[in-house]
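step=encode ok
step=design start
structure_in=
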């Protein structure tokens, strides 16, 4: 993905590999735990590993809770932990520092979630409303959208691939991994049905977000995502972009500008104020923090569905 990121060095602390797993609540580094040690790149990958691995895995995450995952740099301690792990689960082209570390590591089992489903290009969709894009916005459209976990169907496809990889890498517990994967996929199928039913009849199909994280979700349920910043959550929109968003909001009956928990809401609130719109949270679930509307992926997705139903005028 050709998205320019400001890579902010992360301070290496003793808890740099804080475990997100229910199976591992301490801050121990990966490796030598007596379990199948999995290093995950960030929350959506860690959640899959936890749900599929159950009691048989020890999961650590390279991205700390509350950290914007695109900004990650790998510390020396994390590199050591990665080398000691049995498997790494990551999403290629989302975190350049992770891609580099994985490529250079000797980890036997490397699971790239992006290879387990299909990726597409998403970005600022307002072009359909005759908007004028500047050069930077056109650059944003060139990359493949990595936000596959926000589409329950694609996330289920990834889960199935991860389950098979775990079975192959740790055959002693293959039956458990198979059963856990099936249970997770069933829950994701139910979530997909909730979204499809809950968003089938709405006053408008258009919503505005701070950055283009919800392209797959929008496509799945017949919606149109209009992103202020394209695929880069930290870029600044052009004056033309803001002007076109305000025109589009009025034309399409948009009521709400969504912002997210890990990125500043300043731009979203400014645009909403100027256009006379409301603001609300639509969480890309890149990490779970105290600000999250739920304690795990499913809870936050339920909150996202309610927010969309309210903003779109669901019947």
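sequence_out=
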């Amino acid at each position: 993905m050709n998205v320019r990121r400001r890579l902010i060095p992360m301070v290496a602390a003793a808890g740099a590999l804080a475990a997100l797993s229910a199976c591992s609540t301490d801050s121990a580094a990966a490796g030598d735990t007596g379990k199948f040690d999995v290093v995950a790149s960030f929350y959506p990958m860690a959640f899959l590993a936890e749900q599929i691995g159950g009691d048989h895995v020890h999961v650590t995450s390279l991205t700390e809770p509350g950290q914007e995952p695109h900004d990650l740099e790998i510390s020396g301690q994390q590199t050591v932990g990665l080398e000691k792990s049995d498997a790494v689960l990551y999403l290629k082209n989302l975190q350049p520092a992770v891609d580099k570390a994985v490529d250079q590591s000797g980890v036997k089992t490397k699971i790239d979630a992006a290879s387990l489903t299909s990726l597409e290009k998403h970005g600022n969709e307002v072009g359909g409303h005759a908007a004028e894009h500047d050069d930077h916005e056109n650059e944003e459209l060139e990359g493949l959208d990595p936000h596959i976990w926000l589409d329950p169907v694609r996330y289920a496809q990834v889960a199935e691939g991860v389950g098979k990889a775990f079975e192959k890498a740790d055959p002693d517990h293959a039956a458990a991994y198979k059963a856990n994967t099936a249970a997770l996929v069933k829950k994701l199928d139910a979530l997909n049905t909730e979204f499809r039913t809950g968003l089938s009849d709405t006053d408008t199909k258009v919503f505005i977000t701070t950055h283009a994280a919800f392209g797959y979700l929008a496509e799945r349920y017949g919606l149109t995502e209009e992103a202020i910043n394209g695929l880069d959550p930290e870029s600044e929109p052009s004056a033309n972009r803001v002007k076109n968003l305000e025109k589009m909001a009025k034309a399409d009956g948009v009521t709400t500008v969504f912002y997210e928990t890990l990125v500043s809401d300043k731009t979203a609130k400014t645009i909403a104020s100027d256009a006379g719109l409301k603001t609300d949270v639509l969480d890309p679930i890149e990490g779970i923090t105290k600000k999250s509307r739920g304690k795990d992926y499913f809870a936050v997705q339920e909150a996202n569905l309610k927010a969309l139903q309210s903003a779109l005028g669901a019947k």
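step=design ok
step=annotate ok -> The radius of gyration is 20 Å.
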